Amino acid sequence: MRPALILGFVATVASIAIATEMERVHEIGITASVPTVTVTPRRAGHILMRIPSLTYALTVAVDCGADWQPDSVSISVADSGASLDAKQLQAGRELKLELRIPSNQIAPLRIEKFCIADDPNGPDATIQNRITIAGVMSAQASLRCATAFEQATIYVTELLDVVLECGAPDPEKNEPGSLRFILGEGDCDSK
Fold first, then answer.
1. What does the DSSP 8-state code read for residue 42?
2. What are the structural domains, with CATH classification, of the chain?
3. Taking a C-beta distance cutoff of 8 angstroms, is the pair 41, 177 a contact?
4. d(CA 143, CA 84)
5. 78 dihedral zone (left: phi>0; alpha: psi -120 to 50; beta)
6. Contacts of 58 (CB under 8 A, 6+ apart)
7. Strands 69-77, 130-146: parallel, antiparallel or unpaired by DSSP?
8. Paired residues of 97 in beta bridges
9. What share of the chain is helix, strand, coil (3-state, %, to 5)?
10. How many C-beta neighbours within 10 Å does residue 183 have?
């Protein structure tokens, strides 16, 4: 009975050692700043809002397993992206970069009861001047680790947030909700 017990113990330890050796741990992580943008008040009833371009300050942390070296990192948000090669990755395991996302790559946001200009006391009125929209888009990143004989790639996705602040309408631009209206001759008929 004892030899069987010892043989079982050795087999268990050997399988754990083999599994540990085969399992190579590569890691990539992304953290992103939360940009704040000012938006113009909208008319009541308009629920879709276009936001201006966003710039995210990204920190990318990479770690390839023992005997592996980081070969490249690719990051994409919407149709914008950045790549880092092995030479850039030698500078450190934590890299900082900025990625600007143009407005035309950001889908309109459905936002109700925020930044309404028409009637401050109406049914669509809000007292919020600042809101955080979670997961407005996502960043995808890949890390390729390599040895002299093989390569491995891992992926990560991070949701990106944005803070919206309600700004005052610019009366010079006659934006929706503006207090300035220009009436020309013939604009009003009074009979």
1. B
2. 24-36+52-106+132-164 (2.60.40.10)
3. yes
4. 10
5. left
6. 30, 31, 32, 33, 75, 96, 97, 98, 99, 139
7. antiparallel
8. 58
9. 15, 45, 40
10. 7
Rounded CA separation 141/137 (Å): 13
pLDDT for position 177: 37
Give the pLDDT confidence of 6-37 residue by residue, as tens digits: 555 555 555 454 444 445 588 899 999 999 99
Cross-strand pairs, 185? none
What confidence tens digit (pLDDT) does each residue in 110-165 have?
888 888 876 555 554 556 788 999 999 999 999 999 998 999 999 999 999 999 99
Exposed/middle/buried for 54, CB within 10 Å: 0-12, 13-18, 19+?
buried
Whether 135 and 160 have beta carbons less than 8 Å apart is answered as yes
* Run of H or E including 18: helix 2-22
Distance CA 76, CA 78 (A): 6
Task: Flag whether pLDDT at 2 surpasses 90.
Answer: no
Strand partners, 55: 100
Q: Is the pLDDT reported for residue 42 higher than 90?
A: no
Sheet arrangement for strand 27-32: 27-32, 54-63, 94-101
